[in-house]
Specification:
homodimer, alpha+beta, Arc Repressor Mutant, subunit A, three-stranded antiparallel beta sheet, 18% strand, DNA-binding
Chain lengths: 101, 101
DNA sequence: CAAACTGGTTTGCGCTACAAACCAGATTAC
DNA sequence: GTAATCTGGTTTGTAGCGCAAACCAGTTTG
């Protein structure tokens, strides 16, 4: 089976709406915590947890766990690699969408 | 679990890259056959078959089977509903992508 | 001390995208 | 004429994934 085209396939890790939402927020806000991410994305705790785990494994985000007093607090941050990947994704998708124009 | 946002969720049926590729081609070309779609999308026969079946079920495309002489020929066409859905998807995604600016 | 809340992780399941196997009919080779 | 090949697909099998629910550790409140 030939592959004539330069591949229309976007980065699947980013393409998933839940993760795209996470990345979009981190792209805008620099540093957020779990609860905030959950509220903004509308994801459940479980989904948010597994999505962020995947993004961390890919090196797209950093997860930092710390204690504020006695309360655990996890903050999420976009890495440089994540920022670049997101930018690449944006350009890729814009190219596709523009062709629909 | 609250849903504070107006939902970032795109139409999953369109969001899938394989189907988006099919729809993009049909959006541009009006009427194409199976082999052409396969070459352009890079999908295998099986995937193309099941993706088009789903798009037809959703009412986004029409599938017309006919014989040219003795050779079967299936042509695919975007429906009005499909065109509208695709347009909605494009606007939706552009909104998200623009916010990444 | 028990109940409830915070801040998550782990588990279980249904769906789906993918490739491979299959299939029917037409054509070509022998 | 019959066996192999090609065209044009559909059906089947499976691995992976997104989802929600269950669970869990620690803290605060009653």
């Amino acid at each position: 089976m030939a592959d004539e085209l330069p591949s229309i396939d976007p980065d699947r890790l980013i393409h998933e709406p839940g993760r795209l939402a996470i990345l979009a927020i981190l792209n805008a806000l620099e540093e957020v915590d779990f609860l905030f991410l959950m509220e903004q994305t509308g994801l459940t705790k479980g989904n948010l947890s597994s999505h962020t785990a995947k993004l961390e494994t890919a090196g797209y985000i950093e997860i930092e766990k710390a204690f504020v007093g006695k309360v655990p607090r996890t903050v999420y941050r976009l890495t440089e690699a994540g920022s670049e990947a997101l930018d690449g994704y944006r350009r890729h998708m814009e190219g596709i969408l523009n062709s629909l124009g």
